[in-house]
Amino acid sequence: MPVQRTILVVDDDFEIMQAIRAVLENKGYRVITASDGNAGINVAERDNPDMVIVDMMMPKKSGFLVLERLKKKTQPPRIIMITANEGGRHRAYAEMLGVDDYIRKPFAMDRLLESVKRHCPLDAPMPAKESASEETPST
Questions:
Q1: Is the bond leading into 125 cis (omega within 30 degrees of zero)?
Q2: What is the pLDDT of residue 113?
Q3: The domain made up of 6-119 is a member of CATH 3.40.50.2300
Q4: Closest Cα partner for 100 from 55, 126, 120, 130?
Q5: Which of 20, 44, 79, 107 is most buried, judged by most C-beta within 10 A?
Q6: CB 49 within 8 A of CB 75
Q7: How far is Cα 20 from Cα 26, in angstroms, rounded to an integer?
């Protein structure tokens, strides 16, 4: 029987946040949202999601600060960072902080969904921690 998994989506772009929410809810995930980094940290600490999908560039607190704060938790959530930034240094920094995946915008929703299913499956226990996967080009 599928397990109920909660995913927090933190992005200041309302349309992107709602598109991700619709796709994930359609697949059976419970989705909660926050529109900036401070709100994202507050929601994550209150609701303890299984996964957080966080934009890198946001007002109030960047995705890096959110990532850093959440990875200090005793049982940190899986984290996927999404960004329009193409700098390799940013990806390396996110990986150093412990991001589970790093996806560049624009991306095919299938690419995000594949990563979510791999790191936060509905039909199996949470997988062992692995390093950030290599990005596949979106089509």
A1: no
A2: 97
A3: yes
A4: 130
A5: 79
A6: no
A7: 10
CB 25 within 8 A of CB 31: yes
Query: Is the CB of residue 31 less than 8 Å from the CB of residue 7?
Result: yes
Q: What is the pLDDT of residue 89?
A: 92
Q: Would you state the pLDDT for residue 56?
A: 94
Name residues of the chain where pLDDT drops below 70.
1-2, 129-139
Would you state the pLDDT for residue 125? Answer: 81
Kindly state the helix (H) or strand (E) to which residue 83 belongs, with its residue range: strand 78-83
* Domain boundaries along the sequence of the chain: 6-119
Residue 89 sits at φ, ψ, to 5 deg, of -65, -35
Query: 97 phi and psi, to 5 degrees?
Result: -80, -10
Tell me, what's the pLDDT at 2?
66
